[in-house]
Amino acid sequence: MNINFLHRTTIITLLFTILSTTANATDWLGRISDDMPVCRLSIPGTHDAATGEGFIDADTLAGNYIARTQELTLAKQWEAGIRAFDLRPDLATDSLGMQKMTVFHGEFATNTTFSAVISMLRDSLRAHPSEFAIIIMRHESSPNRESSHWADRMDYILALNSDLLVDFRPDITVGQLRGRILLLSRDKYDSVPHGAFVEGWRHDGIIDTANPATIQGCTQKGSLLVQDLYDTSQEADMEAKTKAMQQLFLLGTRRKADEAGRYTWMINHTSGYCITSTEYTKEPVSTTEGYRANAAKTNLLMAKLLEERTAEGRRGGAGIVMMDFGGTDRSGCQDVYGQRLVNDVIKNNIFSSNE
């Protein structure tokens, strides 16, 4: 048999596979029925999503050492199939003395603004109207920044983009959300939300079904179970996190479409850091290496859980899975399994056509 022919065939097959995977990731929500409740999906998301844009010059050195949780830009994350984005905006004064709604991670300013992210998502949704985006927002306040006008400025930005934002309701469907953004804010910027306000967020790794967090839209309120234990630098905390991850995962994937609590929303974080440092601070803080080392364990664990459930034919319900290094399997010298996890989250859905 002709070796050159085999070589060309192998290359063509590989390119076709890559292109097919990219296309499927870019428009994967288009293969889900309009009447599917969003809370019954499995959705890949990124923790401190904007750190993939890099940090401003003054923050680059320390930011890359302490606070980088993503390798891919937001646009590349979208292309990878990520549809939920954790954003932490605050007001920052630029070199010209102008205040901008910059996206931060802690003290470190990324190279993007909240308005720029909204514009990127608007363009992405216009190009891919079958898709939607979820923003999980927190005001990244700091005593080192003047942000007394944060609420007014945020409300103004959201009002300018009101055509893109959807009011929350617990049973909102994929069809109702296509082409638009659902904004879940952990901080209030007005008495009425442009999406929803979240209250009761917790970081202790306890899944308390009797006392869930709440998601309050303009007219309707829903329940939220959230696992966001982020400091895993102690062995006991890593054990608590992985246990809580699995508990919330099983709660979501085992619930039935007609049972009480079927419209409960779930946000399950694999993200966190297990190595700290005092290189730039007096007290121990997170490190990028710590985020990588944590992802090497927790992203892999969640990927295996999803693969097992999908192989059993049990799809959907894992909720929003927030991860570090989404869309890339390697960061620094670590295998972080972010592309594998994104793919596994997407595959664990009930598609309207056979896969």
Label this structure with key terms.
nine-stranded mixed β-barrel, about 350 residues, single chain, 16 strands, TIM Barrel, alpha/beta
Write a compact overview of the structure shown.
The chain has helices spanning 3-26, 60-66, 74-80, 114-127, 150-160, 174-177, 235-254, 288-311, 338-347; strands at residues 42-46, 84-87, 89-93, 99-105, 108-113, 133-137, 181-185, 196-199, 213-216, 221-227, 265-269, 276-277, 285-286, 319-323, 330-331, 334-335. With 355 residues, it is an alpha/beta fold.
Descriptive report:
The chain is 34% helix and 20% strand. It is built from 9 helices and 16 strands. The strands form 4 sheets. The chain has a 9-stranded mixed beta barrel.
Look at the structure and give the mean pLDDT: 93
Structural class assignment? alpha/beta
What fraction of the residues are assigned to beta strands by DSSP?
Answer: 15-25%
- The N- to C-terminal Cα distance equals 33 Å
